[in-house]
Amino acid sequence: MEVLELARWQFGITTVYHFLMVPLTIGLSILVAAMQTRWVRTGELRHLKMTKFWGKLLLVNFAMGVVTGIVQEFQFGMNWSAYSRFVGDVFGAPLAMEGLVAFFVESTFLGLWIFGWDRLPKKVHLACAWAFSLATMASAYFILAANSWMQHPVGVTFENGKPTMNSIWAVLTNNTALAAIPHTLAGAFSVAAAFLVGVAGWHLWRRGSDQDVWRSSLRLGGWVGVAAFAVLAITGDAQGKLMFEQQPMKMASAEALCHTEQPASFSIIAIGDVSGANCEDVKTFNVPALLSFLAHNDFTTEVKGVENLVTEYQAKYGTNYPDDPALGSLAGKPIDYVPNLPVTYWGFRMMIGFGAVSAGIGVLALWLTRRGRVPTARWFPLLVLGGIATPFLGNSAGWIFTEMGRQPFVVVPNPTGVDGVWMFTAQAVSRLTTGEVWTSLIALTTVYAALGVVEVFLMRKYIRGGVDAVMPPPQKDSDEAEGDTLAFAY
């Protein structure tokens, strides 16, 4: 493999791995703050136990997310320095806001929350929980604003061969970002909800202590999961309409739509090799005219196919890469404007499918626990524990589709934007040797694997320990009790 391919693998591995932690942190932080709010308002012990238990798991996951997230920003200087030089005037602003504003607030109030038990007034301590959780959402907002600019560059002029930002407000209110943010946050709540349903369902099925804690947690997770899926469907529709306008090749690739159709059918599933541009050997099961509706809210809109779009892209952006030695073996070669069709086609369906399965498990869990019932079937814990993975897989599939669907561009041309503000992925990579990239790829993958083992070990330890693992022991005398309470505070 060449430097470009290795660099893409490294970025893909580190990004997908990091994003396993991010949605759980975002969603769980809000739910934990809500649990603590309920405890402060009612004084019920079960809500305190819920806050303590789920808060401990939140902290483990957040710590791993910080460690893996730091690597992400270094990627731009390691393997993608040409990209950083091209977009640095724009891309650096939202990343700086994320680090200096959102993450700083996030870390500060998390520290106060961790060490503030029994030291801060209840309501002040609760405010710290909410400040932390809202800062995680702000952090996601700035990151998504940066990513959305790559998908749809706005708020810039083109000077001296690179984009120069002339409106930070345009970057932060990019319609691509405003559609991506609620969709991503809903995905985060879906992950947290499935986590609650899976862990609480397992404890509930075991019929151990603190059944009120597990029942409340499971039902909270079930309702949040159902609501999150509804939001995902609505915001996903909005994103699809923007994709039709801004990245028509990604839309065609999501359907493996090789030829232009009017009206265009939505493919439920395909049998055969969708990677071929002529699609002669592919049989699809379609819903007539549905793709036209998803693209433009009517059943007659024309949706362009891959073959037609390739011709348009060649006319606008050239047929061959520049004859530049920095491009390696791609120098002077024809540009392949078609993304990896199997990845985009099946990734799009995996995203939807796993999201629907996750919501379905939540609905089933709510039904089985209605009116005080406790599930007894042996398949129940296997179902809910396995269901934890489904929104993680759906989120990952969605991001892989989003990023690979814009290839061969790392900065996608804005159809109504400024000429020249786009960049091929092949032009973005650093001038490194394959040995150098192999070294960092192997080292980071090894470290991430070790971190994964640590996280699984800690999560398993605290999940199996239940409430008893995070609550202080029964009080002895007043002095000892105070010391124990402080010692067991986070």
UniProtKB/TrEMBL annotation:
Location, primary (coarse class): membrane
Membrane-crossing segments per the record: 12-33, 53-71, 91-115, 127-150, 185-205, 217-235, 346-368, 380-401, 437-458
Keyword Transmembrane: yes
Topological relation to the membrane, as annotated: Multi-pass membrane protein
Keywords: Cell membrane, Electron transport, Heme, Iron, Membrane, Metal-binding, Transmembrane, Transmembrane helix, Transport
High-level lineage: Bacteria, Bacillati, Actinomycetota, Actinomycetes, Pseudonocardiales
Protein name: Cytochrome ubiquinol oxidase subunit I
InterPro entries per the UniProt record, alphabetical: Cyt-d_ubiquinol_oxidase_su_1
Family as reported in the entry's similarity comment: Belongs to the cytochrome ubiquinol oxidase subunit 1 family.
